[in-house]
Design goal:
Radius of gyration: 18 Å
Distance between the termini: 34 Å
Largest sheet: 6 strands, mixed
CATH class of the largest domain: Alpha Beta
Structural class: alpha/beta
Number of strands: 10
Strand order of the largest sheet: 6-7-8-3-9-10
Number of helices: 8
Shape: globular
Order of helices and strands: EEEHEEHEHHHEHEHEEH
GO molecular function, one term: ATP hydrolysis activity
Keywords: ATP-binding, Nucleotide-binding, Transport
Pfam families: ABC_tran (PF00005)
Family: Belongs to the ABC transporter superfamily.
Organism: Neobacillus cucumis
CATH topology of the largest domain: Rossmann fold
Length: 234
């Protein structure tokens, strides 16, 4: 589904990604962990076609990124730090707008269901500008999946969410997984990574220093791996 070979990204004479090799199978849910400045969000932005790699190869669903950006964009759902929502629009208006961009059929029906799924039916027609950070994040999640993407790219999606919203987000990710969606999630929340991800990669100084499967939702295992690679390794 996703294959990276010797991927590099340089900005302002600084090498942010240093020859990343990575292969992710269809349907995998992968957490990307690492300290600030490690290159995690940059990696996600390259996959989201928002920034161009300096060198290396990116293949997504058999398509080479440099030559097939438009086709690849249709496969992606992307949730960055910003919501990308129009704050004077309501949740319904936002989701219908983005759904129409992707040619979603019965878009209003789909939008209403998603607003209900993220627990905000009562605010269906209220302007997003009046929402709390957590409420905005819920609608942003719905925006990212309105077109049922094959690949979901999430950049610290749990930030600012209360426990109820975290549960909703995790249920959304798991339900997408059941449909075969491949998910990459940059996060600092080890607990969520352990609970919903099949696999963890740890990025440090622009390279992948560890790549392992998560079994039995073992938070301690994930934490110890991270501490060794990032804090304990010389």
């Amino acid at each position: 589904m996703i294959k990276l070979k010797k991927l590099t990204k340089q900005a302002d004479n600084k090498l942010i990604l240093r020859g990343v090799d990575l292969s992710i199978k269809k349907g995998e849910t992968v957490a990307i962990l690492g300290p600030n400045g490690a290159g995690k969000s940059t990696l996600l932005k390259v996959l989201a076609t928002l920034i161009k790699p300096t060198s290396g190869q990116v293949m997504i669903n058999g398509l080479e990124l440099r030559k097939n950006q438009i086709m690849i964009k249709k496969l992606l759902g992307y949730l960055p730090h910003s919501s990308l929502l129009y704050d004077h629009y309501s949740p319904l208006e936002n989701l219908v707008f983005f759904g129409n961009i992707y040619g979603v059929k019965d878009v209003e029906k789909k939008a209403r269901k998603l607003v209900k799924d993220v627990g905000l039916s009562f605010f269906l027609n209220e302007p997003v500008k009046n929402f709390s950070r957590g409420m905005i994040q819920r609608i942003a999640i719905a925006r990212a999946i309105i077109h049922e993407p094959e690949i979901l790219l999430l950049d610290e999606p749990h930030t600012g969410l209360d426990q109820g919203a975290i549960s909703i987000l995790n249920n959304v990710i798991l339900s997408m997984k059941e449909k075969g969606t491949t998910t990459l999630m940059v996060t600092h929340d080890f607990k969520q990574a352990a609970e919903i991800c099949d696999r963890v990669i740890i990025v440090k100084n622009g390279i992948i220093v560890d790549d392992f499967k998560v079994e039995d939702r073992n938070l301690r295992f994930v934490t110890e791996k991270y501490e060794f690679q990032v804090e304990g390794a010389s």
